[in-house]
Amino acid sequence: MSVLVISPDYASHLLPLATLATAWQDAGESVVVATGPATAGIVAEFGFERADLALGRGSNPGVIRAEEQPPGEDDALRGFFAATRHGMVPTLRYQAEARRTDLLWEPVDRARAVLDVIDRVRPDQVIVDHLAFSARLALDVAGIPYADVVLGHPTALPVGDEVYGYPPAWPSAFTPPESELVDLHRLCLDIRDSFTAEWNAALRVLDPDATPSADAFAEHGDLLLLNYPASLHDPARTALLPPHAFLGSAVRAEPADDDVRRWLEADDRPVVYVSFGSFLSARGDVLATVLEALRPLGLRVAVATGSATGLPDVPADWLLRTYLPQVALLQRAAVLVTHGGNNSVTEALTAGVPMVVLPFSTDQFAGAAAIEAAGLGAALDPNTVTATDLGVAVRAVLDGTPADVARAIGEDLRRAPGRDVARAALVG
């Protein structure tokens, strides 16, 4: 038996998808990953075969920098970072406008490239990133069943009266004017309609007899796999989902190197782990505020700095690196300070670690709202928070009940690893 995994050329997408595929690998079955060249090293580290497949203009091997992107994509990335400085609604507006061009890149050509890979690999099963729209378009046209993996917060697939790009919830720290929300909702409706028209145009070329979509953002595969804990999802929303399985998390094995292990073993004080992921680490100004907040707390601090520049000096016993083995560090962390990306959230929950979340974009707002509502930590506005506010929040999470809530969720998630849930859902 063989499985084909289709992923955009982004480490944050490929890592959880590849982790799911290790369940097939451990069963002695063949795994082929179709993705672009930037993440070829990750595919090789997992021991999988790679089929070359580019699904978009951009790429991210682990830490993304605008100057390393192709022309056009670099300016788009800079525009996104600039938008995050103006708050929740301006960022969501920028991202909505960007969807006119970035989610269906050369859809007919890319769909045909996907079908070429299918013809060469001839897999028994196919696993696809939900955001690989052109790949899912190809599979729909060819009538090929596939598992559709939502790697972000489940609201990445709109249900009911939800509109893609408009968050159904956000933390109490964000209080945008009602007029801005109305305008954002209207824009998201417009983008939904134009995106659906683009999907249907490509669909007509690939299969003139196909039934057009009413909402391309709401299209999904035969089986939906949600990389998220069921316990954090609103039961009323769960009832609206198509056939699905909640994976809980897709946490890879990531041992610490010798230097990190020695650092962890050198002191038994609580560890605060700080990371804004591969994209939002560009907000070095917010990261600097976090470092200022943590300095007087007397804790051990590990920081994945990513692409951040201009950071202040920190105590000599802190651990700062461009990249850190997040999964390994979370095994020892007492709290995570994060942008709220779904990989970071689910990895922290699996380790039983509470969070202080500073959401910047997309589904991070809904994810942070769920963390706040579940008592798993605090959520603050990264553009208005002060070092004093952050210090108080970190101390409250450390000394309060969030650690107990996170510990209980972590025990549940570790009992049923996402990769095993995924294989059972597909294979039986």
TrEMBL record:
Coiled-coil segments on the chain, per record: none
One Gene Ontology MF term: UDP-glycosyltransferase activity
Transferase keyword on record: yes
UniProt keyword annotations, A-Z: Transferase
Pfam family, one: UDPGT
Gene Ontology biological-process annotations: antibiotic biosynthetic process
Protein name: Glycosyltransferase, MGT family
Native source species: Nocardioides lianchengensis
